[in-house]
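Renewal narrative, Specific Aim 1. Our central claim is that a sequence can be written position by position from structural information alone. The example that follows is taken directly from our test logs and has not been curated for this report. It begins with the structure tokens describing the chain, in the order in which they were read.
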């Protein structure tokens, strides 16, 4: 493999100019702002960012899209004479003002063991019709939609700790359209603390009845989406997208004031070094992440769909950097093609090894359907041994600190040294990705991932599908890609690399969607667990519940789609080969 994850000129100077002052004072300023999506406090937070951008002369725009936002306002749960403190997740249904009463049952599900289990939400078994179902874990959409589909009247989630984590329970990714609007949750959901959960479970007898009250302010509202652009000088239309969310639960210091501050410092720095930037960098502060299921980033993907599809090199999500005790990079998301780059840049800046895994369907990774590669989302975290030693349960941000999504995510969660280190990491990753002559995306790794996933599925579907031709196409495409990447050696300038880069992006636009998405280029898949090659995963999941004929049809279509993507990728790779020989 010749593709370079190496250095580009100007990196040392860039790193030497990183400073913490502006970032840290932004974090401090945010510690008094509860940044609910579309709120006045969030607008003040956006102004703190834009006023600095303006003072530095960084070009930026604040968009005001009108999107579906849901703000929890009140929740309570009463069983007999006992009232439990409760929270309701964003996008759950509101009950009538004096609540809703129903029989209550306990169905154990167990707590997530790692950050990677959190976003899935294991199913529970049993008859739930007309009942409130009490179960462990966060009120994740997979769980809530499963129980709603089975006729549950409501869900009571027992938090893994004493502080109740805020969250969002809709499976709709971004604002709804006609194909997704029907998935809006229609049942109320509350979360209670772990000890209250224990108390509640002990009280639930055969005839237990509970009253649940929830009130949410759900509707279409304008939210601020701030976009700064630092234009590159050689290929300004091509860009790296660096982004994070501005909105928060409570004052959200670790999630995500530290990320907002990282973006601010990277904007300042890249603007100062703009003459060294070959391609453009767009830096986005989203709203609607927490209260609109990634509404802001999804709006951006919609509003700029074809520009993103044609010109975005990769996107880098910045969520919860610089937190207390977050000294390792053991839970880093990276698509296979970006792994080598992610590891190299992490090592070059921090001297540490990044353990990469493919992104879950979570965070503002709203560009899979458009076929854009990504890395990071969560970056630094506390070591697993330390987490266990502290007795912390797994959480989905704040570097593993369990104050995540609670009132306690305050200044103590931010760490100056770790934040400075992470700013340097995001700055260098962005600069390098925008400047390397050849884009740092090695799709041979992606093909290996596709092949591995397909072999596992092939073992499960047996004779229902003949996938031998597809394995042959994978081998052909690998040869085409090897030839493409071999020609990288002879390329040393951004302009000479253009045909190669066009081919590399075209390969990604074919392979990324088939590996991560089912809903088509301009739609969003739901916020549910989406396994690799989701068409095949869906067939395997349905194999015991539908007739063989349906499965055969499904698998033939899944195979055709994958074959088509492989053929397109091979063709793109060969076209660049011709133009550079
Ligand atoms: Zn976050």
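The sequence written for that structure reads:
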């Amino acid at each position: 493999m010749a593709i370079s994850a190496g250095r580009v000129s100007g990196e040392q100077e860039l790193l030497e100019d990183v400073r913490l002052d502006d970032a840290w004072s932004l974090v401090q300023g945010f510690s008094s702002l509860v940044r609910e999506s579309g709120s006045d406090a969030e607008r003040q937070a956006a102004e703190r960012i834009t006023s600095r951008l303006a003072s530095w002369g960084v070009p930026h725009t604040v968009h005001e899209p009108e999107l579906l936002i849901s703000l929890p306002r009140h929740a309570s749960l009463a069983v007999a004479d006992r009232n439990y403190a409760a929270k309701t997740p964003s996008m759950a249904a509101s009950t009538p003002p004096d609540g809703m009463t129903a029989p209550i049952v306990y169905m154990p599900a167990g707590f997530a063991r790692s950050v990677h289990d959190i976003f899935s939400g294991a199913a529970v078994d049993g008859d739930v019709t007309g009942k409130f179902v009490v179960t462990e874990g966060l009120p994740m959409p997979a769980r809530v939609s499963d129980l709603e589909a089975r006729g549950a009247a409501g869900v009571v989630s027992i938090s893994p700790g004493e502080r109740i984590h805020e969250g969002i329970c809709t499976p709709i990714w971004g604002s709804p359209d006609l194909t997704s609007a029907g998935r809006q949750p229609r049942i109320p959901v509350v979360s209670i603390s772990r000890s209250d959960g224990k108390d509640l479970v002990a009280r639930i007898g055969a005839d237990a009845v509970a009253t649940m009250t929830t009130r949410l302010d759900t509707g279409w509202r304008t939210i601020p989406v701030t976009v700064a652009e630092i234009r590159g000088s050689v290929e300004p239309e091509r860009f790296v997208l660096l982004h994070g969310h501005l909105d928060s639960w409570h004052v959200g210091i670790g999630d995500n004031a530290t990320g907002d501050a990282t973006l601010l410092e990277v904007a300042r720095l890249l603007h100062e070094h703009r003459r060294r930037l070959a391609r453009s960098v767009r830096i986005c502060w989203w709203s609607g992440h927490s209260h609109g299921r990634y509404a802001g980033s999804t709006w951006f993907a919609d509003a700029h769909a074809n520009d993103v599809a044609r010109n975005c090199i990769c996107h880098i999500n910045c969520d919860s950097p610089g937190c207390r005790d977050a000294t390792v990079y053991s839970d880093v998301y990276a698509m296979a093609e970006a792994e080598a780059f992610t590891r190299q840049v992490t090592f070059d800046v921090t001297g540490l090894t990044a353990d990469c895994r493919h992104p879950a369907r979570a965070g503002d990774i709203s560009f899979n359907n458009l076929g854009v590669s990504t890395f990071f989302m969560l970056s630094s975290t506390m070591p697993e041994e330390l987490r266990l030693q502290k007795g912390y349960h797994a959480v989905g941000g704040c570097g593993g600190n369990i104050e995540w999504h609670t009132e306690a995510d305050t200044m103590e969660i931010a760490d100056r040294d770790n934040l400075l280190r992470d700013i340097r990491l995001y700055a260098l990753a962005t600069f390098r990705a925008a400047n390397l002559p050849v884009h740092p995306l090695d799709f041979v790794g992606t093909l290996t991932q596709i092949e591995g996933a397909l072999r596992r599925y092939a073992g499960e579907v047996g004779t229902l599908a003949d996938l031998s031709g597809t394995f042959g196409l994978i081998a052909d495409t690998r040869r085409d890609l090897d030839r493409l990447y071999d020609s990288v050696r002879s390329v040393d300038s951004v302009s000479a690399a253009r045909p190669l880069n066009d081919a590399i992006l075209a390969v990604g636009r074919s392979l990324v969607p088939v590996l991560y998405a089912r809903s088509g280029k301009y739609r969003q898949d739901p916020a549910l667990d989406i396994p690799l090659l989701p068409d095949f995963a869906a067939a395997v999941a349905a194999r015991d519940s539908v007739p063989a004929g349906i499965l055969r049809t499904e698998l033939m279509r899944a195979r055709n789609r994958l074959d088509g993507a492989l053929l397109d990728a091979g063709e793109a790779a060969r076209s660049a080969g011709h133009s550079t020989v």
